[in-house]
Amino acid sequence: MTRKPLLVLGAGAWGTALALVAARTGPVQLWSWDEAQVEQMTRRQENHAYLPGIMFPDSLHPTADIGIAAQTRDVLIAVPCSALRETVSRVLAASRGQSRIAWACKGFDHATCQLPSDVVQELAGTGTPLACLSGPTFAREVAEDLPAAITIATNDDAFGGDLLRIFRAGRFRPYLSTDLVGVQ
Q1: What is the CA angle 68-79-166, rounded to 5?
Q2: 152: which residues sit within 8 A by CB, 6+ positions away?
């Protein structure tokens, strides 16, 4: 059974690297707010600005349309923490609050000093499946399929299992945890 596309928000080095890993196991939409960047990634089939020379597989599709969130179930946000609140708000509006949300940023909300999990839960509600991806990795090495490991912390067992299946590809090894605060 083919899974629904994963929507990765943030086409910097880390978002692109994670999108490349996930694209090994199924379809991925890689979103950027910058339409010129999306056009260049589509034309070149690589993210030349952040990971030059690493070609996109056929299962990875750049987009500037955040409305695609309405057609996906799982969203991975890979933007700086300073943009997390705005990005979560936009994806929730586009998906009508139906998304399971993961993030791959570290730090605090600059305005409130909240952890990312607090920001996402505040905006999405307490029943929303949440997850955080973190680990001692470098985007280029992950994109090149060099050995790497991350931890996926989640408040929802089913979401965690689905994320393990999405990201267990090549030499990339995800491990599951329930410690959202510790992992982020």
Answers
A1: 60
A2: 102, 131, 132, 133, 160, 163, 164, 167, 174, 175, 176, 177, 183
- Integer CA distances (angstroms), 19 to 6, 99, 108, 113, 122, in order: 8, 17, 23, 28, 26
| C-alpha distance across the termini of the chain, in Å | 32
Question: Counting beta carbons within 10 angstroms of the beta carbon of residue 130, is it exposed (0 to 12), middle (13 to 18) or buried (19 or more)?
Answer: buried
User: Which residues have a Cβ under 8 Å from the Cβ of 113 and sit 6 or more positions away?
Assistant: none
Residue in this structure with the two tokens 């600005």, named with its chain if needed: 49
Non-local CB neighbours of 9 within 8 Å, separated by 6+ positions? 15, 31, 66, 75, 76, 77, 78, 79, 87, 91
Say which residue the tokens 């399971």 belong to: 100
> What is the rounded distance in angstroms from the CA atom of residue 139 to the CA atom of residue 164?
18
- Radius of gyration for the chain, computed over Cα atoms and rounded to the nearest angstrom: 15
- For 60-116, how does the pLDDT look when each residue is reduced to its tens digit (9 = 90+)? 999 999 998 888 899 999 999 999 999 999 999 998 878 899 999 988 988 899 999
What pTM was estimated for this model as a whole?
A: 0.95
What are the C-alpha distances in Å from 131 to residues 3, 53, 57, 164, 182?
A: 18, 30, 25, 11, 12
